[in-house]
Amino acid sequence: MANEQTNKEKFEELCAGYVLNALEPEEREEFEVLLQNASEEEREIYQEMRSAANQIAFSVEGNQAPGVVRERILAQVQPEENELSEKAENEMSSSDEDTNNFDRGTFAIAASFALLLVTLSLVFYSFNLSTEISNQEKVIEEQQARISELQNDVQQKEELLSILESREVDLVMMSGMEVNPNGYGKVIWDSESNRALLQVSNLPAVPSDKDYQLWIIKNNKPVSAGVFAVNDPGKDSFFKIEEMAAGEQAADAFAITMEPKGGMPQPTGDMYLMGNMNNN
Amino acid sequence: MIIFTILAAIGKAAHLGADDEVELMKRIKARDEEALAELYDLYNRLLYGMIISIVKKREEAEDVLQEVFIKIWESASTFDEERGNVYSWLVTLARNKAIDRIRSKDYKTQKKASQDVDAPEFFLKGDKFDPLETTIFSDRTELVKRALDKIPESQSEVLKIAYYRGLTQREISEQLEIPLGTVKTRMRQGMIKLKDILGEFISYNG
User: Tell me: the pLDDT tens digits for A28-78?
Assistant: First the structure.
C-alpha cells in the first residue's frame, strides 16, 4: 500500500512538472513512458492537471493588443496578397515548369541524338567488323589456296625428287633449236620404271591451243613421251613424265616440239629442244 | 463557489461555445482569413496578456502574438479537433513561443526546448475545462486568480515561475535556492490543488 502511494505520488510529481513543461529531458521521457502504461485513474489526473495548467494563462490580466498587431497579422494572410504571391509563385513555378519542360525537352532531344549516334556508331562498327571479317575470310581463303598450292608444289617436287632417288638414271642434255636457240633442258630418265624428270629453261609460253610434246627417238622413230605446257616460263620448268611409252630399249635421243593441244601421234610442229643420249 | 457558478453562467450566455471555436478552426483551415480575425478578436487579450507576463516587453509581446497567429494560420491543418480543444492549442502555442523568445535571449547556453505544440497529445479527447464554453476571459481571469490564491504561496509560486518563465524544476531550485525535491513536492501539491479547485468549479457547470 505504501508502495502504491509512492508510485502514485511519483506519477503526480512528474505529471505536474510535465504539464508545466518544467521537467528535464530525461524526466520528460520517463513520464511519457509512464503515461503510455498509465491506469485510467492516472490518465484522468494527467488530463485534469494539463487542463489546469492551461488555465494559468488566465492568472494575468488580459491585455488588449495594439490594433496594429491585428492589422499586421491580417495583412500577412490577406487573400489579395496571397493571390498575388500565389500568382507570383505560380508564375515562378510555371516558369520553373517551363524551364523543367524545356530542360526535359532539351534533354530528350540530346538523349535521342546521343542514342542515334551510338546506334549509328554500332551499325558502322558492326558493318566494319563484317567487312573486316569477310576481308579476313578472303585472306584466309587466299592463304589456304596458297597453302594447297604450295602443298601441290611440294608434292610435285617430292615426286620429281623421287625420280632422282632411283638407282639408275640417264641424264640427257637438250639444247635449243633454231626457233628458240636460247632454250635448253635436261631429261633425267629412269628407264627401269619408265619415268622421266624433264627440266626446261627459256622455252616460250605456249598458246592456249598448243602443248609441248616430248618425244623419245629410237632408231630415228619418234615416240610420244607425253605433253606439257609452259604457261609461265619463269615458273614452269620441271615436269614429270610417267608411263613413258619408251619400251625397254634405250632411247637414242629426246626432242621437244610444239604441237596442237593434247599432242600428236607424230611430230608436226617446230622442234624446240633436242638432245642425244650419245652426248653423255 | 457561488460566484464561480454565477460567472460561469454569464460566460455561457455571453460567449462562443467550443463547437463554435472548432468551426472557426475549420474555416481557418479552409483559408478564411475572416475566421482568423474572429479568433484573434476572441483570444488576443488573453494571449497578449499572457505573453507580456512572460516576455515582459510590449514590443516583443506584439511580435510573439503576431508569430502565434501566423503559426495558427500556417499550421491550422495540423490542428486535430478530436484530440485537443482550440483553447489548449492556442495557449500552449503562445506560451511556447513566448518562452522560446525569452530563452533564446536569456538562456542561450541552456538547453530546454519547449514541448512541441504540434506533437500528438496523450489521451486528450478535448480538455475537460473549456474556458470559452463556460465564461468570458475577464471572469475566467478572476476565477484562476482566486484558485491560485487558495493555494499556499510557496506552491503557487513554483507554478507561476514554471509557467511564466519557462524554468525547469532544477532551474527553479537554483533560483529560489531551495532543494530540488522541495520544488517537485510543491509543484505536485500545487497542481493537485489547482486541478481540484478548477475541477470542482467546472463540475458545477456540468
Answer: 999 999 888 888 888 889 988 888 888 888 777 777 888 888 888 888 887
Domain-embedded: residue A263: yes
- B198: nearest CA partner in chain A: A52
**Strand partners of residue A259:** A211
Domain range for A29 is: 2-101
Query: Is there a single domain that holds both residue A274 and residue A174?
Result: yes
Place of cell 542561450: B108
Per DSSP, the three-state class of B95 is helix
Provide the chain A residues 26-55 that lie in CB contact (below 8 A) with chain B.
28, 32, 35, 43, 45-55
CB < 8 Å to A62, chain B: 45-46, 48-49, 137-138, 141
Rounded distance between C-alpha atoms, residue B158 and residue B162, angstroms: 6
- Name the domain boundary from A47, A73, A101: A101
- d(CA B39, CA B52) in angstroms, rounded, equals 19
With CA atoms as reference, report the closest residue to A213 among A228, A196, A201: A228
Q: Smallest Cβ distance to A69: which of B66, B114, B143?
A: B66
pTM score of the predicted model: 0.48
Mark which of A101, A126, A141 sits at the end of a domain: A101
Residue A203 domain-assigned (yes or no): yes
Does any domain span residue A119? no
Cβ contact B38:B73 at 8 Å: no
Domain of A211: which CATH number?
A: 2.60.40
